[in-house]
Fold:
Amino acid sequence: MTRLHDLNFFVKLAFAFALMTVAWFAPNWQYGVPFALLCLFGLWVTKVPKLRSYLKGAGLLTVMVIASWMVNLLLQGTAPLDALAIAAKMAARLVATTALFYFVMETSSPGAILAACSAARLPAIVTLVLSLTFGIIPMLRDEFERIADAQRARGMEIDNVGLVKKLRFALARGVPLLVQAIRTAHAISFSLTLYGFDLSRKRTTWREVGLMVEPHMSWKDKTR
Structure:
């Protein structure tokens, strides 16, 4: 697992995009569903952190996608079995996509992303967008879990309830999560201004970045 964290961010991103392309070009659910399950199995094999929380979210996503597509297709006059097949295919695509990018996010620290972008000499705005995109989503996920803990502390039963109530409670967390996301964005923008972030200024990397991300100074050098 440690070596996965050290793998170049762009290598992992390219790997995720390649497998995502395979998932979205799967012709039907008979190919899509096993591929999605294979992606989930890959998360388990690589011991990606907080996998249980992701699986709960993926389960809710699957139910919501299948239900929404089924209703939409049935209203258009599609046969129930055909509608279910299409809905399952779409759900499998989304599960595979989220699983792959969950892997990238959980195995890439903000420092590793910044180092890889700096070594590639990407424009500052691209570096900023990539680091914030892959850095803020785990932060919001943790905030989502803290909101759930606060609901439990106030006596709201959100675990041993039916699926409909779980969806309602999950949506109820959206408002405080949105407020926290706005506060986080404001704090980040204030910090960038405070530290004099300038898009016209070129940045350098403090790490050696090739296929793997390595520090400039080895542990042996530090002990001398």
Notes: The beta strands are 207-209, 213-215. The CA atoms of residues 218 and 224 lie 10 Å apart. The mean pLDDT is 79.
